[in-house]
Design a protein that fits this description.
Length: about 90
């Protein structure tokens, strides 16, 4: 049944409820035992450290880190020590 497309009367009849009083206490308890609580399942939250290290799984991040290391090595072995700004920016 497509609930949002049906007439109100047919939805109430299908669900076996009353428009003015809703479900009886016994019927609500019975449905709770049959179907369980109406709750969304929650996923396990990741720690801040886990989320930080997940960033290094991305290919572009790995490429930028490699470029920064190469640029740092070139800056150290080069004659001008002022070129250390580039690897820091990368």
């Amino acid at each position: 049944m497509i609930w949002h497309a049906e007439k109100l009367k047919s939805v109430i009849d299908e669900l076996g409820t009353d428009m003015s009083s809703g479900l009886s206490e016994q019927e609500a308890q019975k449905r709770l035992e049959q179907n369980g609580e109406n709750r969304l399942k929650t996923k396990e939250q990741k720690s801040l450290l886990q989320r930080f290290f997940e960033q290094f799984k991305d290919v572009m991040v790995i490429i930028l880190l490699i470029a920064a290391v190469i640029s740092f090595i070139v800056a150290i072995t080069g004659e001008e020590k002022t070129e250390l700004l580039e690897p820091v920016i990368i």
